[in-house]
Design brief:
six-stranded antiparallel β-sheet; five-stranded parallel β-sheet; 16 helices; 14 strands; rod-shaped; P-loop_NTPase; transmembrane helix
Length: about 625
């Protein structure tokens, strides 16, 4: 692959920026802060895109860092490259609101799909991580010699054990073991036991609440209670009305001094008796014979007395002796007088009896009929009146019997109402118990659901532990295999490059079974800890180039992009490295630098290059 040119619509500080590249060496020169890293990042972004971070990470991510300073909506550009005999133009918009990428095959004059197949073809299967660790070459970042040794040893160890500079098998194994321990600590061993216990409790509660006694009968009980209370209220109302009616009837009877049918019948008999006495007394008083007879008795008594007096005086001539005849007449007079008196007394007694019976019967008639007139019609009316009282009394007795029946019904309804209240209380208690059981059931189900998640999580954790164990086993096997194949090939390729890049000072590199690194000279093995920082930077460059060669295989060489990669080099090492690059690498090289040393050395060595000023 070869980069041809690029155009930046908007990226960081650049707007409308064009830049072209040629075969061989390209030197992009510019002072610090001129924008070299911006262009380097733009090339990588055109190949792999730039994703915006989320949350706090978005404040310092590449997207935010290189968002255009002006007109952020114009965050885009294009890059033209050549690969496999075709020229492609990659057009990309980075803006989050209109992110797009288009690839045009200019050779064929058509747009193609920017899929993995295209990028694998153009980039020889490099991912962005592989790109950053191979053809995009920086310098060792450690400032101290000891740190540079550790970093360089780490790169070589990774390459020998994993075939990748980005992958540290030892560190990955340690990380996986730590992850395994963390996962084991996250497992909750008692979850399954608690889950089984709760399931048993749930089944028990469900069996209990399915019992008929927990069937909700509150509605029917309350409906029955309402019906009973309505009937009870109606019966009480009827009873109260009947009590008032009976009270009024009894008040009427009591006002007439009656307390029952017997008293009414007795009163009627008494009235009939009085009326009979009245009629008898009136009949007797109306007889004319008694007054006449009494007068006659008095007259005869007077005559007898006169006659007896005349006899005693001898004035009357009688055939009887005067003494005996006068005495007889006197006696007769006395008897007649007594008879007259008796008759008079009887007449007076009859009058008194008539007055008495008349007064009584008038009083009776006046009380019950409102009129004291005495007649047979009045007596008949009184009899009818008494019969009304008898019927009233009978009606009252019937009402009282009904009242007693109503009272019995009321008592029955009261008992039923009390029974309904007791049943409602029972139902309320049962429903309260049911509610508690349902709450417990819901709690248990929530716990079961939570425990199910825990159990699932336990299973997932165990699966992850199993996967980690498999990964550790696989990594060990793969590392052994890589060390036996790729590691040896890497050592050989890197050794060839090291010899050239160090000007023959070090002929090769070797790594023992304990991953200790040695540099080979003609006379001895030099531990990596004893070489200079500049040499370590040369070794680092050789390793990157070796990996790039191995990963590209027989494909077209990818461009090497150096971003201030020679800062640690002295002038002689830089001269050797540039001569070696120009002579040994067939592909395109792009060197970003802020120093003029590279330009001067290239000109002095008469090495052809394309200069690009920023």
């Amino acid at each position: 692959m070869k980069l041809l040119d690029l155009h930046i619509n908007g990226f960081g500080k650049f707007h409308g920026k064009d830049m072209d590249f040629q075969n061989g060496l390209n030197v992009v020169y510019g002072k610090n802060e001129a924008g070299k890293s911006t262009i380097h990042t733009f090339i990588r972004g055109m190949l792999f895109g730039i994703e915006r971070g989320r949350g706090r990470a978005s404040r310092n991510d590449l997207y935010t860092k290189y968002e255009p300073w002006e007109d952020s909506a114009n965050y885009q550009g294009w890059l033209r490259l050549e690969s496999g005999g075709f020229t492609y133009r990659i057009e990309r918009k980075f803006s989050k609101n209109s992110k797009e990428v288009h690839v045009i095959n200019e050779t064929l004059g058509k747009e193609i799909t920017p899929d993995k197949t295209f990028y694998d073809q153009v980039l020889c299967g490099l991912t962005e991580t592989s790109y950053n660790n191979t053809i995009s070459i920086g310098q060792l970042k450690s400032a101290t010699d000891s740190s540079m040794v550790a970093e360089l040893k780490n790169y070589i160890a990774n390459l020998n054990t994993s075939g990748s500079m980005a992958l540290n098998i030892t560190r990955a194994s340690a990380f996986l073991k730590k992850q395994r321990k963390d996962l084991e600590n996250q497992i909750v061993p008692e979850a399954a036991r608690n889950y089984t216990t709760l399931l048993g409790e749930i089944r028990g509660i469900e069996q209990e609440i399915s019992s008929p006694e927990f069937e909700n009968q509150l509605t029917s009980c309350r409906s029955m209670q309402k019906d009973v209370n309505e009937r009870l209220a109606k019966k009480r109302e009827e009873r109260e009305e009947m009590i008032q009616k009976i009270a009024r009837g009894r008040q009427i009877l009591a006002g007439n001094q009656f307390d029952g049918e017997a008293s009414i019948r007795a009163y009627l008999q008494k009235a009939e008796k009085v009326y009979g006495e009245y009629k008898t007394a009136r009949a007797d008083s109306e007889k004319k014979s008694r007054p006449v007879l009494s007068i006659l008795c008095f007259l005869l008594a007077a005559v007898s007395l006169l006659a007896s007096a005349g006899l005693f005086a001898g004035l009357l001539p009688v055939p009887f002796p005067p003494l005996w005849g006068g005495a007889a007449l006197a006696a007769a007079a006395v008897l007649l007088l007594l008879a007259g008196l008796l008759l008079r007394m009887k007449i007076k007694r009859c009058q008194k009896e008539l007055e008495l019976s008349a007064g009584l019967i008038r009083e009776i008639f006046a009380r019950h009929l409102g009129d004291g007139s005495i007649s047979d019609e009045a007596m008949n009316a009184l009899s009818q009146r008494m019969e009304e009282f008898v019927r009233l009394n009978a009606a009252l007795e019937k009402s009282e019997a009904s009242l007693r029946e109503q009272q019995a019904e009321i008592e029955t309804l009261q008992q039923k109402a009390e029974s309904c209240s007791a049943e409602i209380e029972t139902q309320q208690r049962l429903q309260w118990e049911l509610e508690k059981k349902l709450e417990r059931l819901s709690f248990c189900k929530d716990q079961v659901a939570a425990l199910q998640h825990v159990i699932d999580e336990n299973d997932r954790l165990r699966d992850e532990i199993t996967a980690i164990d498999l990964a550790l086993e696989t990594m060990t096997e793969v590392s052994t295999s890589i060390r036996a194949s790729f590691g040896l090939l890497l050592n050989k390729t890197a050794s060839d490059l090291i010899s050239g890049i160090t000007g023959g000072i070090y002929r090769s590199m070797s790594v023992d079974e304990n991953l200790n690194i040695f540099m080979n000279t003609r006379t001895k093995l030099v531990p990596i800890e004893q070489v200079s920082s500049g040499t370590m930077d040369q070794i680092y460059l050789a390793l990157r180039l070796a990996v790039a060669r191995l990963m590209q295989g027989k494909n077209d060489p990818l461009p090497l992009i150096f971003d201030d990669s020679f800062v640690q080099y002295d002038d002689e090492r830089l001269r050797t490295a540039l001569r070696w690059l120009a002579a040994s690498y067939d592909g395109q090289c792009i060197i970003f630098t802020c120093h003029r040393r590279e330009l001067q050395i290239l000109e002095e060595e008469k090495i052809p290059f394309h200069r690009i000023n920023i």
